[in-house]
Amino acid sequence: MKKVLLHLKPRALRDIDDLVRFVARFPRGKPEQARGRILGACVRLQDFPRANRVGVRRRRSRLELRRYGAHQFAIVYAYFPPISSRPWGIVSVRAVRHWRTENVFFGVREKDDGSVVPTMLRCR
Q1: What pTM did the predictor assign?
Q2: Residue spans per domain, the chain
């Protein structure tokens, strides 16, 4: 299997922190377990990044957003396949929402400036 980098956008990191605080407000909430489930799901996306269908295509940026369900959370991500100048694919996690959000793609409009620096790397 080819190498795929995982990149977490700043918005996704903020969303994870917000969701962990949300889970912590409940008497039986387990915030660190929620954080582990979200991050574990992000890492699993590296194995089969195209397994989920494209949910939204942004017209201007031509960005294709996909959704991956992980327990009570929805991970919104984009997959950039390998190209000749970059022989690895990139899974870019754009947002993390609660699964009951009406439209998980709403408001996910961050541009890619071309300087994707991986937050985590998993080699095979």
Answers
A1: 0.80
A2: 4-80+98-107
